[in-house]
Amino acid sequence: MPDWREEIRRRVGPAGSARREAEAREELAEHLADRYRESLERGQSEPQAFAAALAELEPLRRRPATRERASSQRSSMLEQLWRDLHHGLRLMRRAPAFTAVAVATLALAIGANTAVFSLVNAVLLRPLPFPEPARLLVVTESVPALGFPVLPFGVPDYEDYARMQRSFESLALYQNARYDLSAGGEAERIAAARVSASLFHVLRVAPLLGRTFTEGEDRPGTEVVVISHGLWQRRFGGSPSALGATLLLDRVPRAVVGIMPAGFQFPLRGPRINGDPAEVWVPIAVTDAQRARRGGEYNYTAIGRLRPGVTPEAAAAEATSIAPRIQQTYPPQLLQFLNGSNLALLAFPLRDLVVGQTRAPLLLLMAAVALVLLVACANVANLLLARGTARQRELALRAALGADRGRLLRQSAAESLALALVGGALGLALAEALRRAALVAVPVELPLVEQAGLDTKVLLATLAVSLGSALVFGIAPGLVAARGELGTALRQDGRGGTSRALKRALRGFAAAQFAGALVLLTAAALLLRSFAALVATDPGFQPRRAIALSTFFPERGYPKRSDILAVDQRLLERLATVPGVETLGASTDLPFASSERRALIVDGGADRATAPPVTTQSWVLGDYFRAAGIPLRAGRLIGPQDAEGAAPVVVVSDSLARRFWPGQDPIGQRLRWVAGAPWLTVVGVVGDVKDGRIDEEANPHTYTPLLQEGPREIEGSLRSINVILRARGEPAAVLGAARREVVAVDPALAVANLRLLDEDVRAAVAPQRFQLTLVAAFAVLGLVLAAVGVYGILAHFVGEQTREIGVRMALGARAGDVLRGVVGEGLRLAAVGAAVGLAASFAVARLLRGMLFGVGVYDPAAFLAAPALLALVALVACGVPAWRASRVDPVVALRQD
Amino acid sequence: MPDTQAKKGSAEIVILSLLEERIRHGYEICRLIDERSEGALRFNAASLYPTLYRLEDRGLIRGRWVEKAGQRRRRYYRITPAGRRALAARRRDWRDFLRALERVARLSHA
Fold first, then answer.
1. Interacting residues of A53 by C-beta distance below 8 A, sequence separation 6+
2. Residue B97's domain spans which residues?
3. Which among A65, A179, A294, A865 could disulfide-bond with A249, CB atoms 3.0 to 4.6 Å apart, if both were Cys?
4. Which of A807, A891, A894 is best to mutate for the B interface (most B CBs within 10 A)?
5. What is the pTM of this model?
6. B interface mutation test: which of A20, A23, A30 has the most B CBs within 10 A?
7. ipTM
8. Cβ A810–B47 below 8 Å, yes or no?
């Protein structure tokens, strides 16, 4: 005869040591023994009889359980935990469908959380990739009253500041630049930075090979260069002989003196000014002319390392106190431009400069994905609860066998834990896949994303999220189980009944899922409306059928103004011969990327006091306005008659004309850059063009003929030119021919950014697209989870009430009544969830304020569409179980008993 | 509503009825339910004992270990006075419910 007590002990699982348990086991053992004996008497074989006896414990097991480790009565905590976890895993194996749904739900939610957190971690939490990064501060100038909350440093101001300050042990100045890199074959245009020799000392980064710059090299005429690890690999195949080799930058040979380590990035990507990671670094080599021209240019960023013990606040205060002393040295002409407002100096952490813009959008994503996790937890809690009713006989038996409530609670927790850990592990794999996908989709501006990965912090966060979610979704089912709610109603048909408290819990979780889903939906709807408004924004030019390319004419090869203008014109002539080109023109800056800001003097000095007399300035050549599709509003465009030596002219934008000559005819008005310079006569007004970000107002804009500009500007900053070609038909067909024509003009020229102009518009909305895509994906995920959740519990209720529904129908209820009843129940849940969710959405919407464009925070369309969609999905989710209920055949339903 | 009352009591009324006749042990109860319902109602150990323990907790039945000569000891259950009262009430509920069904659904003609 088998040892029945052992069989029971093994199958019923661990239980407490109450006296009742021993008795119950003995009684059960007697029962099984009786059953076994009777089966044998009926002529069954021993294995058959054994199986029949074990079938008495049927709801406890379906497949043979694996043998548990023998354990002493008093096992250690760790052993108990292990056994509980083991028990949990066994339960998971026993119900594969339930486990699959629960684990998939958790994996999706935890995976999405991990992926977003790895971005947040990389961008916001990880220290910047330099030693003691907290001591790195950025210093800039600022004239808020003139529309420059952050104004890059001018060289003379910087040198004064560097002399006066005591906060920093070292300071450096840098500026992004671009160079044509040529070596034999085609030239390529690469990102570079001109930096003070002290920069590497400030950052405390040593080169991988060679050296960085000496102070002595930081002067004009020293042709040295430090290169990035990437460029070293690409151009020199990682060979050490690169040291001492020569690179041609803008056709000037420079000796490679150092190679930076892999992963070194500077400037860090992100800031709008001087925020492009460089591939080569050259000495900034400030000239005496630059030192002498105070107010001539504001293009540089200063970075410093604080002295030990100096706080960032102290450095900021010192900078504030130095600003007036610098302003005192300004010549009267420059002071006139300050227009009574004051120059300020700002010192703030490098981190703020790099990631300041991205903090709010990233935190929004984190909040959205956390909400998805909460919805998922509510969903799994409901799955556990609903399944709990199916498992109630096991639990009741275990309770009867003397398992104490704490024990049941612990085992319930172990099951949740097992689910969460498996879900978390899968989620981690999913997160890695998501991260790779996200890195492709991430907008270029997002700084430091290269750092994103599964480091210890991310792994710990995932573990914490998994454990935390187990707590959230496991606690309610555990409590219900421990209170014995599940075991209060046993009946002969073996189907579970759901107690009132349990039903309340199920309904509560279902409503909570709807609430969470609605908040996500509303946020997504707001972002979608905002994105639609953004895409519908008129950028002020016509990107369709237009292509753009940039090229640069270096001093070697094109030393004089006449050389540059000649090649500019030759280039346009050649490009005009490309088949399919309707018209073409060139400008020193293109829409979305016009960085040249100038103060101007208006003849007659109109409204100096109210508006900052600052404009974005571009120099144009050829038929630029028609090629770019910028409309003429009044007067005429710049034409061939505005040649060198003709009367100097300017075309202004709509907003500039309205600002300076409101109610007057702008044509014939005059403006100039500095006192004493020749006046420029306004000959035309064109439409406003988004010169910076698409979600910001267009700045006032002036356009002058490049041909009328003097040698200092042209031989200085106007060596690069951007050409726009407007095609008659398919613009892509023009691309290849355009490149060939540039090379035909000069084989050594680098063609940069050859592209369809449409791409610029797409790039301008890329951050918003990224954010919208993610939030919308999370909203859909939340909605699907909520729909599955409410479907699940309604199906559960209906399944349970089959007999009751049958009786009601036998008593005369019609199918329609039953249908309405079930749908009504589901919609009540959705309504409660929606009410809570709507209230939360109003609060959340306010957090979105800074991220919305052209749409109110309480946009009625978004606040109507989101609940409507929710109601629709709820209706569908309720429909299936309701339809099933309405098809209950009373006779069949009643016969089930 | 009679229906939910009936649902709750259906397991208990069967057990209490069997114990009303005489004291019995668990296996016997199980077999009797099977026999008398001609297999329509089924209990096994997993479903029976929790119900027994709960009935005992509520004072409707009482179990005692009894040793008979030549046999191992068994636990026998007897119905208590409270149990008899509960059984009477259950029977009333069921009778009312079945009558209602008969009247409305004409079950006797089905």
1. A2, A4, A32, A33, A35, A36, A39
2. 2-105
3. A179
4. A807
5. 0.71
6. A30
7. 0.86
8. no
